[in-house]
Amino acid sequence: MSWIIAGLGNPGKEYDGTRHNIGRDFLMAIDKKEGEKGKLFGKKVTILLPDTYMNNSGAAFKKLVTSKKQAEQLVVLQDELDLPLGKVKLSFGSSSGGHNGINSIHKAIKTKDFVRIRIGISPATPSGKLKKPTGEKDVVDFVLGKFKATEQDKLKKAKKLVRDALELLVTEGRDKATMEIHSKQ
Description:
By secondary structure, this protein is an alpha/beta fold. It has helices at residues 22-34, 68-71, 100-109, 136-143, 152-172, 174-183; strands spanning 3-7, 35-36, 39-40, 43-48, 74-84, 88-92, 115-122. A seven-stranded mixed β-sheet has the order 2-3-4-1-5-7-6.
């Protein structure tokens, strides 16, 4: 069975490069560089870039993921407000952590048993303490905002980690990918 790899974000050019679209933007860049027709890193994959807005992401998965076995071969790249920019975490079978796109997928495919590549988007102090926005309006403004020029080095680091995670997932499996990516940070 092949992997289904999805990058969450909002459709439309105005959202390209925003924090909320990091999953979608990273997947498009990695697929462009490493992919070939129907394959990524030499393995058969289906790339999914939902054409729905983030909060309705689940609609794109209903027809594609119809069994628990298929869900276990699903990888979702997403922005993560609870991680600092530059950090990447893999999780499987976990709650949404309040991410509306992930909530929508949980409801659509009726399981939490899929891989999430959580890509940090929040600023942090030099000691690593998160400085994420609070309040609904501030959070919305932040996630729909573009990355700053000063954040490009951390973005590159995160994109490399995501690329490595995807390669390990499709070639070595979930456990190996999780262990290696988490040990690199």
